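Incident log, structure service

09:12 report received: a user says their structure output differs between two submissions of the same chain.
09:20 pulled the input from the user's history:
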Amino acid sequence: MIRRLTILKNLDLFGVPYKTKISINEDEQKSLLGGMITAILYGVSFAYFIYVLIQWQTGNILPVTSSMSKAQKQGSFKINRGELIQFTYSRGSIQEVDPFDNQNIILLPIGYELSNGYQSPPINLLSISNGTSYYDTLLISPDEITIQQNVNASDEEYPVIQFVIVLRSCDEMFLTEGQKCASQDLVNQFWNYGGSYLSVFVKLRQYSVKTQKIEVIDKEIYFPLQNQYNTNGQLLFKPVNLDIDDGILFHNEQKLQFITDIEIITSQTGKSFLNNSFGFDTYISIYIVLDPIALDNRVAYPKLSQILAEVGSISSTLLMIRVFIILFNQHLLEERLINRIIRIHHPFLQLNKVPNDFMKQIKAQSKNKLVITEIINDIYKIQQFIESNFGKSALENSNLKYIESESRHSVKITPIKILIRSASND
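09:34 re-ran on a clean worker, output below:
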């Protein structure tokens, strides 16, 4: 049992060595200069810690980010009304007619969902308009759209879904209640003006690592509108899968998905080019497609442990100056001990009147007294002096009495003189 307790005792990592005191109230040699430097170093380290902490809390310490493009076998994205895409007529002057005016419709926007190439019933997009654009024309926001991509295009369980927006001339069979087509005179006036552009507004999103919020970036795309041609456009939306780790101490991951970029492919054909697909002539056709190449981004914000490690490394670098202060204090301690030895051996010596060469010799001799072998030799000389004047028995009895008075335990005592002689012989 005692052996086990001894083993447990030896495992103690908090043991302290015995330190010989310089004086009753001093364990170490310290100086005013060392105290000033210590206060400055710790003050600077603490100020730097506060500075880094503030920078960390305000998001000025950038996180670790990584980005990788990856081909997805399958992918899906749902677009809510007004969140990603809107379009309007971009007229150059107030005299131009708005072709999307519900009371005088010249161009009718029709939407189709294409699932593995199969069309859904047509959707009159004018019926879900969303206010007015800064061109003072009707702003149209398609309703909820789902786009999907699949490497295996023949997979019926997970089909490839695209959404197409086409502009055609007004046809009453597509109109809803309260809508009517424009007169032929107004149609001729519109085309005689020379045509303009269809403006498509796309709301892309990016993650701000500083504010930790999703920022919306508006992008405007122009598709030319001409009477004799059809402008084909493909909007290839590039998704991003974002993993955010913003834990302070432990991992705290969030997963987000949004559209971060867009690729635009355009071409121009005759307006009857898509007649076989939709059954009518078109002026503009825009296909909304999900890109199979997605970005996998990861953002890992610095944790408290990393901040403390950074502050600790800087503080350790600053505290390297302590080497010079330690050397300075060692010099002070050595001078202090040498002066004390000189006063003991030369009590009547006036130091300010001693020549420098002689003083150097005295200091060199006194410095030798600090060496452990010299201390043992001096103790041995004292022992020899006591033996020659008082006898061996007196020395042994004095040693025994002193040790017994300091110890309350019954132990076998080895005379000090044997230890001293042994050390002296070594």
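09:41 both user submissions now match this output. Likely a transient worker issue. Closing.
09:42 reviewer note: The first strand starts at residue 64 and ends at 71. The mean pLDDT is 82.
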